[in-house]
Amino acid sequence: MTTANSHYPRTGLRLRCEIGVNPKVRSSCLNFAAWLRLNMEFPIRVVVYLKKNYQIKNR
Q1: Which residues contact 14 (CB under 8 A, 6 or more apart)?
Q2: pTM
Q3: CA distance 14 to 58
């Protein structure tokens, strides 16, 4: 499946960082995401959320 044939309007990898996330963790994740974008194709949008809490609850 290529991006031209898909029905998804948005593609790629995106990171969303909450205020209060450890700066070293944030920096490492951003570096890894940059490397990952160079080595993999994301035909649909993948969003990674970095949260400051140890544990989160779904609603």
Answers
A1: 45, 46, 47, 48
A2: 0.74
A3: 20
| Alpha carbon of residue 33 to chain centroid | 7
Apex 55 CA angle, 18 and 15, nearest 5: 30
Digit-coded pLDDT (tens) for 10-47: 999 999 999 999 999 999 999 999 999 999 999 999 99
* Burial category of 16 from C-beta neighbours within 10 Å (exposed 0-12, middle 13-18, buried 19 and up): exposed
For residue 5 the two structure tokens come to 């044939």
Residue keyed to tokens 């898909």:
6
